[in-house]
Amino acid sequence: MLYGIVAAITALFLAAVLAALLRVPALRLGLLDRRQRQRRVPLFGGAAVVLATCLVAVAGDWTGIAPLGDGIEVLLAAGGAVAALGLVADVWRLNARFLVVGTATAAAFVVPYGDTGVVAGVASVGWITFVALAFRSLDHADGVAGTVGVVTAFGVAACAAVEVMDGLAVLLSVFAAALTGFLMHNWPPARVALGACGSLFAGFLLAAAAVTARAGHAPVAGAGVLFALTAVAVADVVLVVVSRRLARRPLLRGTSDHLAHRLRRLGLTAQGVTVLLGVAAFGAVLVGVLVHAGWADARAVWWVAGVVLVVVLGMLRVAVYGPPRARGRRDRRARGAQRAPAPRPAPRPGSGSASVYAPRRQSEGRRQSEDHAHHPESGVRRTGRSVSPQVNASLRVRNG
């Protein structure tokens, strides 16, 4: 136990130092968070978490201070591969299908098929992939993914400790400590972002560890425990998918419609949103740990599902997309501007239709010149009108 505490403290300070050091090259290379922000927030915070977790875990296992045990090396290697895929997605824009296929391939190597069976093993691969992508979606606001990840890591570590999986519990403790060191720079307002590298690694490691700790138990109760351990990430994904489907928007086009965005619209501060989602994650994880340890009935998971349903339905009432009528008027104006006829060219001199397309002042001047040609004696004009000969003669007499 003492060795595990030392490893966790080492991972915390190492992640904090690496996040501060990697921030500078990320700024110079222009590797910034693509979300709409008022300031530039560099990536590579996730790389700091991955490096701190892997270095401390491998060093502890190699020196024998904190051995990981059988199978944990494969889990750590698969998580590193997923993190590398996320790093590529941070540098270059990757299609979502590459992330899904890569994460599912890595998950296929860590599922204990001997304990779960083939059918449950395939379902576990899908679940690990889903949770990894859900944590990437949860990284939509400062501190949210890191806070929920820390709480979930301690909960899964407790489940592993119940099953006497000391190596897995140590790895999750080291990972939770690394995320805590990263949160020193990511707490709102963030100075460094987690990115796809860190969020995919976090979701993959937590989901795979939960599946490993829960393997061999009843599948229905196991599914409930897995859901409770990741309830906040699941609620965010369900909310986004249902909301975009109802609004007829593309599912993969990012916008401000996640949990944290809607809570901010309700008046909460950025720090308040992070704390609230962390408390919600703690409540759901606590239920999952109690059910896994046998200290609570499996039906307690239904309370978590009910709360998630109420939250999703309530958050759907928060307007985030804007009035659809305004969008329709703007679209109609844009289409009308595109269909507007081009201005007709000016007529050539001598054309018969010059009086139709010529400006009004030119046509009036032409009419006045024609009147002057027909009546040359009307030399004095007033406001564009010809003067009679009698008035003209009287004016000459009056002026001498």
Automatic annotation (TrEMBL):
Pfam families for this protein: Glycos_transf_4 (PF00953)
Compositionally biased residues, Basic residues: 326-336
Positions of region (Disordered): 326-400
InterPro entries the UniProt entry points to: Glycosyl_transferase_4 (IPR000715)
Location in the cell: Cell membrane
Topology relative to the membrane: Multi-pass membrane protein
Annotated EC: 2.7.8.33, 2.7.8.35
Keywords for the protein's UniProt record, in alphabetical order: Cell membrane, Membrane, Transferase, Transmembrane, Transmembrane helix
Positions of transmembrane segments: 6-29, 41-59, 71-89, 119-136, 143-162, 192-213, 225-247, 268-295, 301-320
Composition bias type Basic and acidic residues, residue spans: 361-380
UniProt GO molecular function: UDP-N-acetylglucosamine-undecaprenyl-phosphate N-acetylglucosaminephosphotransferase activity
Enzyme class: transferase
Protein's name in the database: UDP-GlcNAc:undecaprenyl-phosphate GlcNAc-1-phosphate transferase
